[in-house]
Amino acid sequence: MSLELFGHDLDLSFLREMLIAYVLALPSAFDRERTNRSAGLRTFPIVSLASCSYLLVACDTFGDDPQSVARVLYGLMTGIGFIGGGAIIKQGGAAHGTATAASIWGTGAIGASVAFHYYGIALAISVMTFLTLVVFRPIKTILRDGHKPRPKVRDDNDNS
Length: 160
Known about the structure:
The protein contains five helices and four strands; from the N terminus they run ββαααββαα. It is mainly alpha-helical. The chain has a two-stranded antiparallel sheet. A two-stranded antiparallel sheet has the order 3-4. A hairpin with a 2-residue loop joins strand 3 and strand 4.
């Protein structure tokens, strides 16, 4: 698919991959936003979209040179790690934001997987990351805080 703009044909064939990368980043983005994390609905889809886009361009430009494409991938991995590092906050002896940082890195892998047409891997990363964030949150709380019995609520109608 192409579109003519200012006398030039614009190749729009990559829009499908870019849209898939964007959509697959949304579940984790919604979770991070819902829990008021430092990165969420804006960061996650942009990271996935940008990763996909850089690699689509690299594959189109350097397709016959896999080492050049690999160098672009290495650069992306490093750059996304840097973005994720910005989500980590150290307070005293504890670090907060590591799950968000890891999720950002995973979101970059979603975009990369889609760019290389590994849709199953991208879907698996999206689902597994989301489930890890949602399912293990209460388990982490129990392990961290220990099982604390709920405080007894006094009922004013209870005369015992």
